[in-house]
Amino acid sequence: PPWSGFRAIVASYRDHRAAWSVEVTGNLYSSAPVPVASAVGGALTAASFASGDRLYRYGLYAVVSFGNALQGWVLETTASRARRNRFAIILMLSLGILGGLGLAYLGAPVSAILFGESVAAFQSTLIWLGVAYAAVATSTPLIRNVLIPARRERLVLAVTVVSAVLGIATMGVFGTMWGAEGVAMGLATSELSTLIACAVLTARVGLHPVPQAGGTHTDEQ
């Protein structure tokens, strides 16, 4: 296509600043659990949590890959978007459940093999990381395929920021009380709050969202 011009590119970045701010905020927040675990627990707690966190992040590669593929597939059409959105949500929910169960029940022995028995992740920690994993996987198609295309990115950004603040606070409090398990519990609390809020917004928007004309935002959003 012909070059749209520098001003058009800058205008597009400004118009979608809330959307890319969601990505920036999420990426910064995802780095918080390990430092929090180090701050509230001893070296063993931090090392054990880091092992579980690494498995959790390995699992997120599947969420990103499936999310990217399904985003293109859902948004390439308008005629059957609701049906494709429904299929994408079911598929990502299934991935989240399977991945979460895998972390909960296979994560401890796998972490012992990969990182050593002395720093293997506790199963209690992995259960909560599995809950967080299922929540992230399920909320991904709601954000990418429904709410962002419907231009509700400001609401998504607000949800992301509030959930991040809630997550850091609960990770600190629960981590002080229960160590690595408490940090994972705080992460799960944050991701579940994001999922619930996005599910409510998706129910309002519908699975065949119509974006605001011209990319503008109204008080209704």
Briefly note the structural class of the backbone: mainly alpha
Q: Secondary-structure element sequence?
A: HHHHHHHH
Strand content: under 5%
The averaged pLDDT comes out at 88
Question: How many distinct helices?
Answer: 8
Can you lay out the helices and strands and say which pair or pack?
Elements: H1 6-15, H2 17-29, H3 33-40, H4 43-75, H5 81-115, H6 123-147, H7 153-178, H8 180-205
Helix pairs in contact: 2-7, 3-4, 3-7, 4-5, 4-6, 4-8, 5-6, 6-8, 7-8
Q: How does this structure look, described?
A:
The chain is mostly helical. It is 80% helix and 0% strand. It is built from eight helices and no strands. It has helices at 6-15, 17-29, 33-40, 43-75, 81-115, 123-147, 153-178, 180-205. The longest helix has 35 residues, at 81-115. It is globular and about 55 Å long. The two termini are 32 Å apart. The model is unreliable at 213-221 (pLDDT under 50).
Task: Give a short synopsis of this structure.
80% of the residues lie in helices and 0% in strands. By secondary structure, the chain is mainly alpha-helical.
Give me some keywords for this one.
single chain, 221 residues, disordered C terminus, 8 helices, 80% helix
